[in-house]
Task: structure prediction
Amino acid sequence: MSVRHFTSIRDLNREEMDYLLATARNFSEVAQRRIRKVPVLRGKTVVNLFFENSTRTRTSFEVAAKMLSADVVNFNVATSSLSKGESLKDTLYTIEALGGSLIVVRHPSPGIADLFAGWSRLPIVNAGDGIHEHPTQALLDLYTLQQHFESLDGLRVCIMGDLLHSRVARSHLFAYKQMGIQATVVAPPTLLPRGIERYVDKVAHRVSDDLLKEVDVVYLLRIQHERQDKGFIPSVREYFRLYGLRLDQVMRANPNLKVLHPGPINRNVEIDEGAADWDGTLILEQVENGVPARMAVLYWLLMGEKAGQPEEALHADAS
Ligand code: CP
Result:
């Protein structure tokens, strides 16, 4: 039987995207219960294999798996036999032999999730591979937007910041094409990938009040500390002056504006304190929505052909 993986948002057609978003909506109810658990994935084991630091993604996959009654193994890369020269492939085969059911992988190298998918008999979920993709982040962000806007079709989103190194932006722009979302990007030319014009409706190099009146959503990206000494921006202070989103700008913007950021945020680099803590900024809501969105992904991959309609998901049993 062929194994289904989720390594790119492009793995999903529109119907599958709608299915996952509807399933996430159904699973969100579990978090409101006194006992936050359903027996859907009893007997399954989710393995978190993170070669790069994470707060939100690793924890929310763990919470999502536990809410579905799966067991969770957080593989400790630093203390594993990888340090004795064991290869990635042999590490994967070892996890399979130990009874894992699905592997969530994060790695600093682009393409590693697809490499794992090529070797693996288990479903692989890409939790971020270098600057390539972060598909579950895009999914949870679409889910968050659906809670605030009647339709995603025609929604005007402005992505601001370091698009060149952003796996989140890459997954977003592919998803926008599927969902009919209009994309504007704002960044210094040094932080935009070559050919970006083909994927977006508008490219700008400055933030203006007019632009902030024209869009429904500002999606901010982190300025990555690890890249700041490479000459992409003159200085953090200069970046904040030209591209940091401030509360006074938000107050003059579209009155229905929402601000999103995948986290972790750098206060007073890409966003000031006032805008970060403003009511229309949905950063913690995104974190919260990461759980049902990832529950939907785990359910979809681990149920396989037994996955039913979204409204049946709460009563399913993979065992
Ligand atoms: N958004 C995101 O991927 O955050 P973490 O690096 O904390 O997982």
